[in-house]
Amino acid sequence: MPKIHPLRPPETEKITINLGHVDLGRIDLLVSEGFYSNRTDFIRTAIRNQITTEQDQVTSSMKRHTLELGLVDLTRAQLEAARSKGELLDIRVVGLARIASDVSTDLALATIGSIHVLGALQASRELKAALKDRMT
């Protein structure tokens, strides 16, 4: 099974959001009043507060869907070991899943039965394309 690591704060994923002019103006007002250092600080704080508010629902959903939380690293050695045992992996993670750059498409297809990532998947374009029909 892949090794699971807790995520470290510096690892981030860039997102884009659209806000109305009034909401953006309110954020800018709070920034200008010194409540937040910038727009990004406000948005990160708002998201963290909402996630904290919904923590029980997140935990319950993760248990119900048997999702791992954090960073899942899939190495060539791990996948080769799974292939030698005839195992087909079902990868389910909330956070970040990384497939090592030395993992071939053939090895990934032989060992990854499905992959479900709520967060981000880091893998080569070729691997992502090959696994597309196994992503849920």
From TrEMBL:
Gene3D superfamilies: Met repressor-like. One of its GO terms (biological process) is regulation of DNA-templated transcription. This is Arc/MetJ-type ribon-helix-helix transcriptional regulator.
